[in-house]
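Exercise 3.2. Students should predict the tertiary structure of the chain below and write it as C-alpha cells, then compare their answer with the key that follows.

Predict this chain's 3D structure.
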Amino acid sequence: MAFLPVTRKEMEERGWDQCDFVYVCGDAYVDHSSFGMAIITRLLEANGYKVGVIAQPDWHDPSSIDVFGEPRLAFLVSAGNMDSMVCHYTVAKKHRNRDFYSPGGQMGLRPDHASVVYGNLIRRTYKDTPLIMGGVEASLRRLAHYDYWSDKLKRSVLLDGGADMISYGMGEKSIVAIADALNAGIPIGQITWIEGTAFRSHNLEGVMDGYVSLPSFESMRADKLKYAESFRLQYRNLDPFSGKCLVEPYEQDNLYIVQNPPSTPLSTSEFDAVYRLPYERTYHPMYEAAGGIPAISEVKFSLTSNRGCIGECSFCSLAFHQGRIIQSRSKDSLVEEAKAITQDPDFKGYINDVGGPTANFRKPACPKQLDKGACRGKRCLAPKPCRSLQVDNRDYLNVLRELRSLPGVKKVFVRSGLRFDYVLLDKHANEFIEELSQYHVSGQLRLAPEHVSDEVLQVMGKPNNDTYQEFVRRFEVANKKLGLKQFVVPYLMSSHPGSTLKEAVELAEFCRDMGFNPEQVQDFYPTPSTISTCIYFTGVDPRTMKEVYCPRTPHEKAMQRALIQYRNPKNRRLVIEALNEAGREDLIGYDEKCLVRPDKGGANKAKDRSGEPKKQRGKRQGSSSGMKSRSKGAAAVANPKGKSQNENSAGSLQRGKRPASPIMTEGERTGSLQRGKRSGKSGPLASEGKARRGKSQTASAERSHSRKDVRFDKGKVNPSRSSFKPQGRGPNKAAGSKGGIRRQGSKR
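Answer key:
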C-alpha cells in the first residue's frame, strides 16, 4: 500500500480530479498507527473517501494550503500528536531546541497555536469550505480554556480558528459519521447530532434535549470561580452514557459553542479493525534526506494495547481526551502486529513496549461501565479504590507470554507505565510482579509516584505513599528471589498545586533517604483541560470548590525543584533559602541527615531545631496548618541509623536517573498528555498517537535557548458526529477493504 498523496501530481496519478478531504497537520507525515493523522486518513480511505495530506504547510504562504485545491467535502486540521505550545516551550516558557515530530528534529516548521493558525490560513483562501478540527490541541481547547502561555482565559478554538466543528477525543466514529453526512449533501451547519463533536451555533435549535448550560465566557473572564464551576460541569459530563450536551454562551458574539456527549468507546473488534488498516509503519520517504522523523524511533517497535484510563490523575488530560472506560485490543490482534514487526529489516528482536496510557489496564473498571458508563462524581482507583473495582492482570500477562514466545523476539519490555496501586489490588499481584521482573524489565522499572506527601498526592489523585513503598518492597523481594539486581526509578513532580515548601522538603528528604539523585525533575506544567490546571488558574479544586495553595512565582518553583536536586552544587543557595523559609534550618549543617552545609562563619546555623516552620510563601491555603518536620515517606524508608532499607533499592543507586525520552516534553507523561503520559493514542482528528504513551503532555527536559523574554500572543493568535466503519460506504470504495467496524448510531 502506498502513502497517501502529498502533491497534486500524486493525486492526479491516482486518477483523481479532486480530494474529498484534505488533511492539514502540524506533524510531519508518518503513516504509523501511533500517529493520529495516520489513523484518521487511513480510516477515511477504507470508507471509500479520497484523502490528500498537507504536512507542516508554510503558514506565512497561503498557497501552501492550496496543494490539492479545494476539497470536495472538507478540510481537516490537526496541530499533531502534541499541543503545539507544549511542543515548542518548556514549563519555564523557554524555547525547546528540538521538535521530534519534524524532519531531523528541526524546530520552527509549525506555528504556535497551530490549529488556530492553520484554520485562519485556510479561511483566507476558502471562505465557505467546511473546516473540521481535531487532535489533542483542538480537543482540549474545544470550550473556553486557560492558556498558560499567555496567562489568559481563551475562547474555544472553534471561534479563534474559524472552524465549523471539532471532532474531539477519539475520533474514529465521529469522523466517519461527519464524512457520511457531508457526502449525503447535508450542510455542515446542519450536522448537529453527532456524538464526539462540538460546533458553533447562533441559536439552540437542534441542540440535544436536556442540555446543560455552562457559565458564559464573559462571566468566566470576569470571575475565575465561574470557570471552576464550568470545569466541574464539564468533568461531570465526560461519560458517553450519562454525559449531557453542554452549551457555552458567548454573549458578545451572540452565539453558542455546543458540545455533544463523547463518542462511545470502541469495541474490541472495532479497535482491532483500526489496527488492521494498511499503514506503511514509517515516515514518508521525502524526509529521508533530512534524517527522518525522530518520533518514530520510540514507537516503531511498540504495540498499543489499550486506551482510556481509570486513574484520573489530576494533572493528566486523558480522562478529558480518551475517557475513563478502558478499551483494549484482542491478544490475536496484538500478536498479528507483532509478527509484522518481526519482519521489519530494522527489527533487532526487542519489542519496546506493550501498553497505552497505562500498560496494565486491559478491561473496564467494572461491568457496569459497559452499558451505564463510569460513575459520576466517584473515582475508580484513587485515593481509595471503589468496592466495585475488578482487578485481574492475568490477561495482560497472557498477552506478554505469547509475544515473547514469537520467533525472532528476544525481549518484550513494558515501558508505558504501570499503576502500581492497581497491581497490588490483584490477588495475583506477587505472580505479576515476579513475572514482570523476570522477563519485562531491563534493569530499571520506572514508576510514577510523583510525590511522597499524602496531602499533595490527594490533590494529584494519586495513591498514598505507603502504597508505593509496598510495591517497591514486593519488587525487591521478587528480584532477590530471582537473583536479579533491578531497581525502581520514581518519576517525581515539583510545584504541583497543594505543594508548599514544607511538602517540597519532604520530597527532598525522601530523595536523601533513598540515595536518589534525579538529574531531571518534572515541574508541574499547566496544560489545557486538566483539573490541576484549573486549580492553578482559579485557586480552587473544581471537584470541591475548596481553596488549594499553588506555587506560582518562578522563584518559588525554582526553590521546590532545587530541593529535589539538592546535591547539585548549583542549587546550594536556593536550597538554603528554601530551608530557611520552610523553617527547616535543622537540615543545614554537618549531620548525615542535613541536605546542605552552612555558609562559612555559621551564618546559616540552625536557630530553631524544633522543626516548627516560619511564615513562608508556601503557607497552605485551605488545608491543615500542622507541619511535620519529617516526611512520612522518608520515615518509612529509613532505619534508625538513617540508612536506606536496602542499599540496592530504587534510589539507593545513583543509577536511578531518569533518561531523557526523545518524545516527551517537560510536563507530559502526559500526556501530557501529555503521562500527558503521554497523550495516549489520541486521535487526530483525534486519535492522538501514542508517540509517547502515557500521561498528559509532558516530556524530557531539554536544553533551552538562553532567550529570557519570550512573549506570547498579545491579542489574536493569527500571525500576519457518529458512525464508524473501516469498510466502506461512500464514494470510491477501496477494493477489497476489510474492516468489521460498522456504522453505529451516533457517539473516547
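Discussion points: The chain is about 25% helix and 10% strand. Confidence is low (pLDDT under 50) at residues 605-725, 727-748.
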